[in-house]
Amino acid sequence: MVVGCIPEWEDKLLLCRRAIEPRSGLWTIPAGFLENGETVIEGAKRESFEEARARVEILGLYTLFDLTHVHQVYLIFRARLLDDHYMAGEETAEVKLFEEKEMPWDEIAFPSIKKALTLYFQDRLTGVFPLHTGTIPPFKKI
Amino acid sequence: MVVGCIPEWEDKLLLCRRAIEPRSGLWTIPAGFLENGETVIEGAKRESFEEARARVEILGLYTLFDLTHVHQVYLIFRARLLDDHYMAGEETAEVKLFEEKEMPWDEIAFPSIKKALTLYFQDRLTGVFPLHTGTIPPFKKI
């Protein structure tokens, strides 16, 4: 099981540029495998700190994606940065806040993350963020 | 990861009396470990069929519980029986529809299931079933 969050700061989102494979050099949100003994919310907070040195408040579950081809379930929460202190963690090359118009849509590391971020900006138009569930198909190499 | 559902039929819920350990003889909802290659919704449907020979429509995710002491995440969906055909599966001693006033509260097999069912009847008073998240502590032996 993978847990992660979409960290908000004002009208911006915090993204991390990956420093490790797979998909090194591309952008993603803080996310990673749930560890034994932690709750899903603790896992999402831990990943935010490990990858972006960011402290977040978790707002609610936002997406539940099945990645059956890799036997993974992805839980992504909405979150809010507690302050604007952040920096790249060990597995991260760069951390940056993006406004919607600045989003690096062609350089998002994973289809599941691109899907979650796309839904986020759609829902932000109405201010209502329902839980989205679905299946993410295998990644197609270009 | 464990997936299950609360199957509704009119104003009743379908429960299964366990024929296997742990907690043999006590009542629960259809639930079990997610299998490789299936989605969480497919898993919840499969468990309903395996344990109660019941075909269900999944209505939505209802609870997300962390059972950190056993390194499990429990996803419970609301569901609706597609018809009133059901019978005990191999690991089930008995399957029965319960009205709220008939619920065997003192014979529910697991704290996570008792919690989900308790929330369900609370929410049913308003007709609104939000996602509930939380941590279920270790089971205390009496």
Characteristics:
homodimer, 142 residues, alpha+beta
Largest sheet of chain A: 8 strands, mixed
Unreliable spans of chain A are none
Describe the oligomeric state of these chains in a short phrase: homodimer
Coarse shape of chain A: globular
**Distance between the terminal alpha carbons of chain A, to the nearest Å?**
27 Å
Strand fraction band of chain A? 35-45%
Radius of gyration of chain A: 14 Å
The computed structural class of chain A is alpha+beta
What string, H for helix and E for strand, traces the elements of chain A in order?
Answer: EEEEHEEEHE
Mean pLDDT of chain A: 96
- Total number of strands of chain A: 8
Which pair has the most extensive contact? A-B, 19 and 19 residues
Q: How many helix segments of chain A?
A: 2
Can you give the helix content of chain A as a percent range?
A: 10-25%
